[in-house]
Structure formats: C-alpha cells, structure tokens
Amino acid sequence: MPDLATALRAVLPPGAALGLPVAGDLPLEDPGPVVPARRVEFAAGRSAARAAMAALGLPPLPIPMGADRAPVWPGGVTGTITHCAGACLALAGQAADWHGLGLDAEPLVPLEAGLWPLILGPDEEGDGLQALRSFVAKEAAYKAQYPLSRMLFDFHTLRLDWRGAQFTAHFTRAVPPFAKGAQLQGRLVQAGGFVAAFVAIAA
To answer: How many whole angstroms separate alpha carbon 23 and alpha carbon 203?
Structure first.
C-alpha cells in the first residue's frame, strides 16, 4: 500500500489530502453491531480519514456513520474512504474547495467475465482488467457525486471515456443535480499490486 499512496499523492490536485491508517489509533466512533472484521475495517477507515484531515491542519474529530451508512464528515470537510483486501485509504479536502471527493481501490486482479455486463455499458468494451479499471473509476465517481445527489444507482448510469490514465464519467441519465450528459473528471493509478481511481468535484 505505500507504493499506491505515493503514486496517488503524486497526481492528487492541490487541496486534496491522502491519509492512511495510523497504527494504534483508537476509534472515536462505534459502528454498531457488526462482525469483528467489519469493526477493524471501520476503525482503519476512520483512522485514515483523520490522517487525511490532519494533513490539512484539521483536528481529529469523529466521523460517524449516517443512516445511509455513508461517513458523516465534520462541518466544512469533504472526504471519501476506501477499503479493499490489503489497502485502506482516505481523501479529505475543505468543503470550500470541493463539493465531492471519491476514491476507490482494489487489488490488481482481473474481474470474472460474469461481472463484466454489470459494470460495462453496451458501448464500453474490455477484458477482465479493463472491467476492473472501469469498476474502480465508476465507484470513485459515484462516491464523489453522492454528497450532492444522495441517490443510489447502478454502474450503467455512468459511461466512461478514457484518455490514458485519465477518464471522464458521463451521466447516461439525469441524477439531480446532475443532468443527463453531465461529466465528472477522474484519474486512474496502478501501483504496488493495486489499482485506484479518484474523482474530485470542485466547489
């Protein structure tokens, strides 16, 4: 994961800070009745989020879980958390700079062919690795827009155009406040056996 963090920090926009879990960091929140593995994952994510806020010069405030299970960031803060096998990272920024931040990461393992139709739209092609890249890119875009729309939707609601490691996610239907055809810009990173994507919506 250090290689992935280094690669991400090299391409993040100014004002977006990356955080990793801090060893020995005690959780300030209670995820409720969950299995032990989920409790460990939850604590790691919140620790990474507070590390990201600390990089912005912000105090280590609690980040509880909302009724929709999304993190409730402190006032004036926009952020995102991602977990996968072997990695946990968070992005944070000032809400005055960013309306939404989205980050997703997965091990660099091709997705099974049975999953491709769920992720790739009719005009999106690819193999198992491209399906994986599209998965993390669409997840990052979804996370970035969620604080604005508060709407759930499937992968086909976004269509990706790629330009090397950069991508544009187009809304294939209206998701207020985003109109059909609205675009979100993102970036893909591969390092240390992981693939990650981030999307930042400027204020």
So the answer is: 33
In contact, 107 and 84? CB cutoff 8 Å: yes
Q: How far is Cα 156 from Cα 174, in angstroms, rounded to an integer?
A: 12
Tens of pLDDT along the chain (203 residues)?
789 999 999 999 999 999 999 987 877 777 778 788 888 888 899 999 999 999 999 998 999 988 888 999 999 999 999 999 999 999 999 999 999 999 999 999 999 999 999 999 988 878 999 999 999 999 999 999 999 999 999 999 999 999 999 999 999 999 999 999 999 999 999 999 999 999 999 99
Exposed/middle/buried for 121, CB within 10 Å: 0-12, 13-18, 19+? middle
For residue 49, which of 66, 68, 64 has the smallest C-alpha distance? 64
115 near 86, Cβ under 8 Å?
no
Helix (H) or strand (E) holding 3: helix 2-9
DSSP 95-124: TTTEEEEEEEEEES-PPPGGGHHHHS-TT-
Question: Element (H or E) spanning 199, and its range?
Answer: strand 194-202
| CA distance readout (Å), 58 to 25, 63, 91, 199 | 16, 13, 13, 22
- Structure token digits, residue 11: 């391409």
Q: What is the pTM of this model?
A: 0.94
Q: State the maximum Cα–Cα separation within the chain, in Å, rounded to a whole number.
A: 47
